[in-house]
Amino acid sequence: MKHSAQGAAGPGAGTAAAVRIPVQPSAADVARDRDEDQSRARGRMRGAGEPDGAARGEHTHGEPPAPGPSVPGPSAPGHSTPRPRTPVQRSSVRGQVLDALRAALVTGELRPGEVYSAPVLGERFGVSATPVREAMQQLALEGAVEVVPNRGFRVVERGDRELAELAEVRALIEVPVWLRLARTVPAERWAELRPLAEATARAASSGCPATYAEADRAFHRAVLALAGNEELVRIAGDVHRRAQWPPAGSPTARGRADLVADAHEHTALLDALIAGDPDAVRALVGQHFTGARQDSRVLGL
């Protein structure tokens, strides 16, 4: 896969030059981040012994809360009381950063093996280091990055073997469900998924791997949701996301032609499911998940 990132992260610093997906925080989000930065600065001026989280990729605790804006207090005219904090706003910024980082992982802009620091990424996104660090910690839980103490976060390097194993796990989870649903779900329910299949085709035509990855997951999630098993949807979705990360050292990104071919399989599968053609469904499902060379070995088809 083609990496569009430029440059490598230096020791202890990381680089954000490759991440070009903008985050658009609200005015309240910007004010909150500014207040937090000022509060942390005041804490350091008072000689607080807590180490700065920017130097430790994994640090999020111990940062003093930022005072919120004041509003007039009802019982004391002329005085003010702290306005309650609104966690939803922080989640909004962190969510935007997380989505941007996930997209950068899929496109290869966050390069496998490179170290990225939260403060530098925060400057690129126009936010403080805190939401970036929180988003990176979520990616660490997902296995996309690993903490490098006093430096930041290293993007995990994946080999072809790991990606092949993830593809096999996806097949073992999803293929039996697809085949069971093909026997039990009526044609009109399958027809309702047509807009999602068409969305994957449009995303593939754009040639953007991140856009296609999101549309692809949405289509598969909708199919598995027909089984009525939320745990199945969650687990399969996690594996699917991990399978979309490019391997280390891949010279080229997944090209537009590959994306279009993959999206075409969604449309062909729906056509076969709506037509009630079990043989075609069986062949297309096997091809979609593993490729013709692995069908018999992995799926026993």
Description:
- By secondary structure, the protein is mostly helical.
- It is 57% helix and 5% strand.
- The chain contains twelve helices and five strands.
- The protein has a three-stranded antiparallel sheet with strand order 3-5-4. The protein has a two-stranded antiparallel sheet with strand order 1-2.
- A hairpin with a 7-residue loop joins strand 1 and strand 2.
- Helix 10 runs antiparallel to helix 11.
- The two termini are 30 Å apart.
- 33% of the residues are buried.
Number of helices: 12
Reported for the largest beta sheet, the result is: 3 strands, antiparallel
How much of the sequence is in beta strands?
5-15%
Helix content: 55-70%
CA distance, first residue to last residue:
30 Å
Count of individual beta strands: 5
What is the overall shape?
A: elongated
Q: Averaging pLDDT over every residue, what do you get?
A: 75
Give the class from helix and strand content and strand pairing: mainly alpha
The succession of helices and strands, N to C, reads HEEHEHHEEHHHHHHHH
Low-pLDDT sequence parts: 1-22, 40-89, 292-301
Give the SSE layout.
Elements: H1 27-45, E1 70-72, E2 80-82, H2 87-107, E3 115-116, H3 118-125, H4 129-141, E4 145-148, E5 152-155, H5 160-184, H6 187-191, H7 194-206, H8 209-225, H9 230-243, H10 256-275, H11 278-290, H12 295-299
Antiparallel strand pairs: 1-2, 3-5, 4-5
